[in-house]
Specification:
By secondary structure, the chain is of the alpha+beta class. It folds into two domains: 131 residues, Creatinase/prolidase N-terminal domain (Creatine Amidinohydrolase, Chain A, domain 1), CATH 3.40.350.10; 238 residues, Creatinase/methionine aminopeptidase superfamily (Creatine Amidinohydrolase, Alpha-Beta Complex). Helices cover 35% and strands 23% of the residues. The protein has ten helices and 17 strands. Helix 3 links the parallel strand 3 and strand 4. Helix 7 packs across helix 8.
Length: 379
């Protein structure tokens, strides 16, 4: 169910209307997610700059390297303009800026060096991301893709739990699950499989390594009594969903159980706060206050969650000083954590859509982990 031409034309029309409101002539887009949202174009970013341009009159063009012009001219944007080579005597973004004209808006994915070149070519230019703002609220078709991705993320999580075993390394578990689930997705999805893949990515952390939220998956072997944090992000037709859980390899200590239960309480508090009209900050505060009541207010290392869609991490961000009001159609990852230095980290993740009558969890099978005993892998 790749989104059709009408969707992307509408996205470009909304952008052109916003440009008129901003009194801007054009928008120059460098973020691959923004380009895909407006044009439908799927491409592999390289060292050669590629951009989409949308003008306030509703027209659009692609600015691309000559070597890629033919295969990129396949969507609704038929105006494909190319530059000869890179590097060249003149940076291609200077040519792009002249083609776009000003007053100009440039999205925030532009590099500092390219921004400098653009600012030297166009007298009036502003760094702004109106397309990222459009992407915050998803259409029913986008939500359907995210919900489908959530099913695959859940599948990976279930298979990872079944694969946990003493003596296996974190990398053993992750590599096997990614390979198997990616193969299933490749067979299932057809045109919705997002080449070049893999369509599923993840992380496995065990033992004291769970206290480091973004530590890479390692060759550490799982041992009896370990706490294991497993997370997966699946991608269907460019749209992402996440699932994550904290598991036990063998019987855990009582304190460990309490800490993991605390992370679940914080996650549920965040979910309850995800009502239309609430602010992103208030959701974060709900999770933090839940942990503070449990005496764990100093054991928080990151925000409660974030938006998800064409990018695995995008606005809105569930953290302090974020006054963004939650709106039906927003899709969020509910992902607070508890971190006990030198002992364990506990984190769970689920993908949630905001609806008029309350939040709805998109993961079809994530509730199987609601009871602590379901998270215990016995031997």
């Amino acid at each position: 169910m790749v989104l059709g031409e009408a969707f992307h034309r509408r996205a470009a029309k909304l952008l052109s209307e916003r440009l008129t409101t901003l009194e801007k002539h054009a928008a120059l887009l460098f973020d691959p997610a923004n380009i895909r949202y407006v044009t439908g174009l799927r491409f592999l970013p390289t060292d050669r700059p590629l951009a989409a341009c949308v003008w306030a009159d509703g027209s659009a063009a692609l600015f691309v390297p000559q070597m890629e012009a033919e295969h990129l001219a396949s969507g609704w944007v038929t105006d494909v303009r190319w530059y000869a080579e890179y590097p060249a005597d003149e940076p291609p973004v200077r040519w792009m800026a002249r083609e776009a004209g000003g007053p100009l808006v440039v999205d925030t994915a532009v590099s500092a060096q390219d921004w400098k070149h653009i600012a030297e070519e166009v007298e009036e230019v502003e760094l702004l991301d109106p397309v990222a703002e459009q992407r915050v609220v998803k259409s029913p078709a986008e939500i359907a893709l995210i919900e489908r991705a959530a099913g695959y993320a859940d599948m990976a999580l279930e298979r990872a739990f079944a694969r946990l075993a003493t003596g296996s390394t974190e990398q053993d578990v992750l590599a096997e699950i990614v390979s198997v689930v990616d193969g299933i997705m490749r067979q299932d999805l057809g045109d919705d499989y997002d080449l070049p893949g893999p369509a599923i990515t993840g992380s496995v952390q065990s033992g004291t390594r769970t206290t480091m939220p973004n530590a890479p998956t390692s060759n550490r072997s799982l041992t009896r009594g370990d706490c294991v944090v497993v997370e997966f992000t699946a991608n269907v037709a460019g749209y992402h969903a996440q699932a994550g859980c904290t598991f036990f390899v063998g019987d855990p200590l009582r304190d460990v159980v309490r800490w993991v239960e605390s992370s679940m309480i914080a996650q549920n508090a965040a979910l309850e706060a995800m009502t239309a009209g609430a602010t992103a900050e208030s959701v974060d505060l709900a999770a933090r206050r839940a942990l503070e009541r449990l005496g764990l207010g100093t054991n928080i290392r990151h925000r409660t969650g974030h938006g998800i869609g064409l990018s695995p991490i995008e606005a809105p961000y569930l953290t302090r000083s974020q006054a963004t009001a939650l709106t039906p159609g927003m899709v969020l990852v509910d992902r607070p954590g508890v971190y006990i230095p030198g002992r364990i980290g506990a984190r769970n993740a689920r993908t949630v859509v905001i609806e008029a009558d309350g939040p709805r969890v998109l993961n079809p099978r994530i509730d199987r982990w609601d009871k602590m005993e379901s998270r215990l892998k016995e031997f």
